[in-house]
Amino acid sequence: MLSTKATCNSHGQDSSYFLGWQAYEKNPYDPISNPKGIIQMGLAENQLSFDLLESWLWSNPDSAGFSAQNQSLFRELALFQDYHGLPAFKNALVDFMSEIRDNKVTFDPNNLVLTAGATSANETLMFCLAGPGDAILLPTPYYPGFDRDLKWRTEAEIVPIHCSSSNGFRITEWALEEAYEQAQKLNLKVKGVLVTNPSNPLGTSLSLHELDLLVSFISSKNIHLISDEIYSGTVFSSPGFISIMEVLKNKDLINTDVGKRVHIVYSLSKDLGLPGFRIGAIYSNDKVVVSAATKMSSFGLISSQTQYLLSQILSDKKFTKNYLSENRRRLKQRHEMLENALQKNGIKSLKSNAGLFSWVDMRGLLSSQTFEGEMELWKKIVYEVGLNISPGSSCHCSEPGWFRVCFANMSKETLDLAMQRLSLFVDSMPKTKDQIHRLKSLKKDLRKTKSLPKWVFTLSFTTTRSGMESM
């Protein structure tokens, strides 16, 4: 006697991504009470800069206590608020978004729709743009939660844009066209492309070439582009972050028909590490989309108290400047810690510059180069090693053996323990001739790079960067 929505199985909860979480929740690691428990490395959460936020709260007790000039604001904030959101918060949020983008672009608060996190923002946009029989194109690998966020209630479909490790999983014109043709073969009407920039799970920011390619593609197909820029403030090394808004501005497209079909999703869940505050936003130059999304936002509002507190924090420009700089420094440091530990175990990762995770190449540890081999390895790492990492198949990666490993949701001590566990596991594994060769080759490469002078790295980086921009 339940609805079809209540009984359908399209939520994606049975994905290995979520199954790993369930395993962790049943046996969570704790250094005191459960030292042999599973360490959570499948959660893209930023816990590295809580002390900066806590310090601000201690220094600004009036804001945290919802008072100003010795007058309580509690009653005012506790009463009904219009679902358009508090103007002070919207102004502070668009200023913060500009600051992350080095003030190369500005945002109009009238084009901003507040939502209860990026999950709500993405689903709301999908409700505005697509429905049953429609499809959105999405580059692989992609965040497993999109199967739930974009499809479950909207009944739209996702058609993958298959990207390859051969070019660092970069988006190509060929892959876009192939996905578009595949959707047509399935009798689906393509309504747009959704990208995450920087990418989850790759940890890489989109190149200018890729962004230009996407703008040209949606222009030629007369479809929409959603740019999920939730990780925009986590770019910790070169190349820097380029927002789709910057591309539109440089091409003088913001107020054109193409510009109105480009929409940005943002949240403070990753950059400020506040997923529990449920602060998300949609930015669009299309007034109809803004109006419809605003009406829909009444089903998932941000509390007035949260909006007020964050408007105070984000309006403190000295704090935001210091926070962004220090947070990026800490992310880079923690990323290097993970990468170095993996390399010592003969494990490579995709070269990345952003995010809260690494896209790790464990193909050399597979018993067979298949997705069955990937799942076999994943189960061992979760249940025997005690590390919850996300297999590439849960991210719809077309190549078995890649894993997303998070590094910013734990202490240095916990990350060090996780790498010790992984090292013992790798050492205990029976090695095939191919695995032994790969391991020796990597260790040889590491010895070479340690002996090279700094100017070689500079030359190598310059060449790599210019090469990537020309892809």
TrEMBL record:
Keyword Iron: no
MF-aspect GO terms: 1-aminocyclopropane-1-carboxylate synthase activity; pyridoxal phosphate binding; transaminase activity
Gene Ontology biological process terms from the UniProt entry: ethylene biosynthetic process; fruit ripening
Domain of life of the native organism: Eukaryota
Catalyzed reactions: S-adenosyl-L-methionine = 1-aminocyclopropane-1-carboxylate + S-methyl-5'-thioadenosine + H(+)
Cofactor: pyridoxal 5'-phosphate
Pathway participation: Alkene biosynthesis; ethylene biosynthesis via S-adenosyl-L-methionine; ethylene from S-adenosyl-L-methionine: step 1/2
Top-level class of the enzyme under EC nomenclature: lyase
One Pfam assignment: Aminotran_1_2
Family designation: Belongs to the class-I pyridoxal-phosphate-dependent aminotransferase family.
Official protein name in the record: 1-aminocyclopropane-1-carboxylate synthase
Source organism (scientific name): Artemisia annua (Sweet wormwood)
